[in-house]
Amino acid sequence: MNYDLETIRSQFPALALTDKGQPRVYLDNPAGTQVPVQVIQRMSDYLIHCNANQGGTFKTSIESDLILEEAHQAMADLLNAGSSSEIIFGANIGTTLTGWLVATLGFKLDLGEAVLPFVFIGAVLHLTGRPKLIAAGQALTGFGLLFIGIDFLKDGMAAFEGTVTPANFPPDTIVGRLKLVAIGLVITLVTQSSSADFGETKNC
Known about the structure:
By secondary structure, the protein is mainly α. Strands 1-2 form a two-stranded antiparallel ribbon. It is extended, with a radius of gyration of 23 Å. The protein has 8 helices and 2 strands. The chain has a domain at 91-204. Strand 1 and strand 2 (22-23) form a beta hairpin.
């Protein structure tokens, strides 16, 4: 199947922006994911006509609830879910949830020691030979190792506290920009690998 890329790109207003005559490049996904004009129009329409708290008995709130239910049903149809009640909208696993967990737990608890019992229990369950217990053991072990990894990451990054500042960034040259892109890619890989662990843990 062939796609008309120019037609598709024209649906995203942000892609028409330029800097000094050059098209802007977007690398700050997923929080910075650009949206098509249809999404912008629907969001604008919602904020103008039915922006209200849920569960109210007045017209604006009722219309807001209807739109939310339509979104749930559309997602249920897309995922072939049994009903719209099975769809829950919340924080994304990638950026927001990872940040919350690290901010709430990673820097206040000694996670490396706190989760060792989970790793031990998971290993014991894995040795039982029973499929369901093995699966539960793998989930517990993975959960424990995930937070141990966050603990190692926290300790490792502490060494750079106060030493990595904008003054240390490469100069504003082609090579310097490429270095910044490389640094960004490494940080993204570290962040998204932990996010993938969260996804795998959730799927278990």
